[in-house]
Design brief:
Layout: H1 6-17, E1 28-32, E2 39-41, E3 46-48, E4 58-61, E5 74-77, E6 85-91, E7 96-104, E8 117-122, E9 125-129, E10 142-149, E11 153-163, E12 167-176, E13 191-201, E14 207-208, E15 222-226, E16 234-238, E17 260-264, E18 271-276, E19 281-289, E20 303-308, E21 311-317, H2 319-323, E22 330-338, E23 342-351, E24 356-357, E25 359-367, H3 374-386, E26 410-415, E27 420-427, E28 449-451, E29 458-459, E30 473-475, E31 480-484, E32 497-499, E33 504-508, H4 511-516, E34 522-524, E35 529-531
Parallel strand pairs: 13-15, 27-28, 28-30, 29-31, 30-32, 31-33, 32-34, 33-35
Antiparallel strand pairs: 1-12, 2-3, 4-5, 5-12, 6-11, 7-10, 7-12, 8-9, 8-11, 10-13, 13-25, 14-15, 16-17, 17-24, 18-23, 19-22, 19-25, 20-21, 20-23, 26-27
Length: 532
Amino acid sequence: MQRFPFLLWTLLFCLAFSTCVARQAPWVMRISCGARLNVHTAPTNTLWYKDFAYTGGIPANATRPSNISPPLKTLRYFPLSSGPNNCYNINRVPKGHYTVRVFFGLDGHRNFDNEPLFDISIEGTQIYSLKSGWTNHDDQVFTEALVFLTDGTASICFHSTGHGDPAILSIEILQMEDRAYYFGPAWVQGIILRTAARLSCGNGKPKFDVDYSGDHWGGDRFWSPIKTFGQGSDLARSTESGIKKASNAPNYYPEALYQTALVSTDTQPDLAYTMDVDPNRNYSIWLHFAEIDSSVTAAGKRVFDILINGVVTFEDVDIVKMSGDRYTALVLNTTVTVSGRTLTIGLHPKEGSHAIINAIEVFEILTAESKTLLEEVRALQSLKSALSLPLRFGWNGDPCVPQEHPWNGADCHFDKTSSKWFIDGLSLDNQGLRGFLPNDISRLRHLQNINLSDNSIRGAVPPSIGTIPGLVVLDLSYNSFNGSIPESLGQLTSLRRLNLNGNSLSGRVPAALGGRLLHGASFKYAATSVAL
């Protein structure tokens, strides 16, 4: 029995039963950072939502570092007094695959480093570090990544590195097809693709998909123009003819992307593009072709090899043969490991004297960080509120990831069995903490060490502490705790050191604690009104 492609069956069913409906629009969220009202920007009347209740920081007037930056007038910056980690937390995001794009901003009205350098993470995975000189390069005034958002939220964090205050112009979350940019068996929901380069060859102007009238499911990609790979090495070609098979699912490339190209010359028959990359990383490379040269009239007239860092990756590429016709899109994808600091894509003609290429995309392949146990994150958030933790701690985002920027005062441990992080220590002594110690501290069930000494914490010692099974050290000395010592502390069979000095506790020490002294445990009750 002959098999029909799924899309053909769908079309026949629609025609027969008149059940076809318009395709649902992708979910889109665009935030104009620092804006108090929604904004529409020309020339496409794009809607940017106001920046309300997503994060902390300070709104300010913006200076656009580049003409490709959205024409917005405000930004939000995060002074170090706000803490080293600051996040936008966006709720009610439908489960799916998204392009997340962040444009950076400059505030010329304040006396700080005019070119701040900081790190960016999405869902706990660090995706980018701004490099010195970023304001001079269009493709560095933003960063973007393709990521799966599965829990109804999006967390986008900015991490200070001591080189100016992070300043954010805009954030975009643009839904794509779930299988967009599928690159093989290694492609799973735990993979993030960070855009390293996206080039439109032979084109003279920077453009977004919307400028090409591209499909909304394409994620409104930005295409950097590249007129030549090197002086005298190639010539630009263009056509106004239509291109077949361009805007197909799941990537939905704009047709106009294939209407320009670079073609090698008689004096330089090979084409080569070289870019800087981070070493010892994996990269997903997408190469775009359409035979738009009128001199190539049939299959076999132009055949070339494609080399990645000198290694033949695609042999005998014949665009007309492989795509099925002239003026028809062809996309080739490969994954490579790069050990050095450069990536070179070369095209070597074999039949016909010239090679041709229309566009290039390069993505760094990142493995998403495992997150901290959700119950423990919520417990720390409760602790942050109850203790009036100063902003300088920056307890925002995930406590343990990205691993380059963990929370101050929270000690993390990775559990290989569950592939989750948990908190095994709190070191918050002498930090000017006030407020009270909440019962929720017991939800940090992996704690081995609690040091909250030399603060101004008041109220009762919560009995729930006695339910933390592996607690070895509990130091609550020199605070303003009052009331009695909870009987439940006697249940802490692993406890080796307890210090309650300098509080206003009263009553009796639980018998189990007193008995523990016989086994070498260190308990200090001095300056409290307790009886053994």
